[in-house]
Write a structure and sequence with these properties.
Blueprint lengths: L1 H16 L5 H20 L2 H5 L10 H26 L6 H23 L4 H4 E4 L8 E4 L16
Antiparallel strand pairs: 1-2
Length: 154
C-alpha cells in the first residue's frame, strides 16, 4: 500500500511539473510541487518520532537517519526558495538534486515507518545544491539497528 502512495505522489509530482510554460517556470513549479509533496509526506514525522503512532517504534539511529534525510530536502528547498525570492535563475541541476533528495527521503521514510531501513537511509548523499556544494554523509547499518515493531502488520 505504501509503495502505491509513494508512486502516486511521485507521478502527481511529475504531472504537476508540466503545467508551467517556460523553462524557468517549469523549474519553479517543480520546486513548489516537490515542497508540497515533501510537506505532505513529512507531516506525520513529529508523531512518529515521539512514539505516538501505534506499531511504529524507531530506534535512535533510525530517527537520526530520518532527520538527516529530511534535513537534506529542507536544505535544498530553502536554498532554492531563497533563490526564487531573489529573482535568480534556477539551475536544472539544483532542482534535480532536490528531487533526488526528496526521492531518497521518500524511500527512507516509507521504509522506516514500514519496518525496515532501506539502503537510501544508510547512505545519504546530497549534491548540486543551489550553492554548488557537495556533501556526502555515510552512516553504517550498525548505527541504524532496527527496533521497528509492526505488530504483525506488513
Amino acid at each position: 500500500m505504501k509503495n502505491h502512495v509513494k508512486a502516486g505522489s511521485l507521478v502527481a509530482l511529475c504531472l504537476l511539473c508540466s503545467c508551467a510554460q517556460t523553462a524557468q517556470g517549469k523549474l519553479r513549479q517543480a520546486v513548489y510541487d516537490t515542497a508540497s509533496a515533501y510537506h505532505l509526506l513529512a507531516s506525520p514525522m513529529p508523531d512518529v518520532m515521539a512514539g505516538h503512532v501505534p506499531g511504529v517504534n524507531l530506534s535512535a539511529g533510525q530517527k537520526a537517519l530520518a532527520r538527516k534525510a529530511s534535513q537534506s530536502v529542507l536544505d535544498e528547498l530553502s536554498a532554492l526558495e531563497q533563490s526564487m525570492q531573489a529573482g535568480n535563475t534556477l539551475a536544472e541541476t539544483a532542482v534535480a538534486a532536490l528531487q533526488a533528495d526528496f526521492a531518497a527521503f521518500s524511500t527512507c521514510w516509507s521504509g522506516l515507518t514500514g519496518g525496515n531501513t532501506p539502503t537510501t537511509c544508510t547512505m545519504a548523499t546530497t549534491t548540486g545544491t543551489a550553492t554548488d556544494t557537495t556533501t556526502v554523509t555515510t552512516t553504517t547499518q550498525t548505527d541504524a539497528d532496527m527496533s521497528v515493531s509492526t505488530n504483525g502488520k506488513e
